Amino acid sequence: ASAPLAEIVREMDKDSDNLLAETLLREIGIHAKGAPGTRDKGLKAVQDFLKRAGWNEDDYRVVDGCGLSRYDAITPAELTKLLCYMPSEQLAYPALLIALPIAGVDGTLQERLDTPLTRGHLRAKTGTMTGVSSLAGYLDTADGRTLAIAVMNNNYLDTPERARALQDALVTLFAAPQNH
Predict the structure, then answer these.
(1) pTM exceeds 0.90, yes or no
(2) Which are the contacts of 80, defined by CB distance < 8 A and separation ≥ 6?
């Protein structure tokens, strides 16, 4: 017995709980492939899901549940493809939206993008390692559109704050009303 899955995923995403992500990967393995829950069974279930979402096995590599491995490899294009697919997952999509940190409000985005254009208008997951910073999620623009966005900075030598500042500037640019 545990809290509902949506609650667990919310806790995991809001604060980037990597241990919880690894545990859920194994739990997914149990539900998809039977006990015992293993990383390999969980990864196979994730690969099956990503295939259903339109990903090609040759275009990415996922080796863990939390994304901390240097062997994980995903492009922003694949990530936005997944974000665009998610609304078709009628049970998972609402839980995903609730789980994602909200700009200027909570989680890993509580102190970021706290401007009138972006506060409360971006729901996104962050990802950070040495030399890596990413931001991916959904942005509600000032002119009423919802955009799937993914920005990844890799192999940079500057500070994480500068990478985040670039991401925030791009989000703010896309949040503004478009004149075309």
Answers:
(1) yes
(2) 136, 148, 149, 150
DSSP annotation of 6? H
Q: Where are the alpha helices (DSSP H) in 100-157?
A: none
- φ and ψ of 178, to 5 deg: -95, 140
Identify the DSSP state of 73.
Answer: B
The CA R_g of the chain, rounded to the nearest whole Å, is 16
User: What residues contact residue 57 under an 8 Å CB cut-off, 6+ apart?
Assistant: 47, 51
Share of the chain above pLDDT 70, in %: 99
How many residues are given for the chain?
180
- What's the rounded Cα separation, in Å, for the pair 78 and 59? 8
Which positions ≥6 away from 109 have C-beta within 8 Å? 101, 102, 103, 122, 124, 126
Residue 180 token pair = 């075309």
Q: Is 145 helix (H, G, I), strand (E, B) or coil?
A: coil
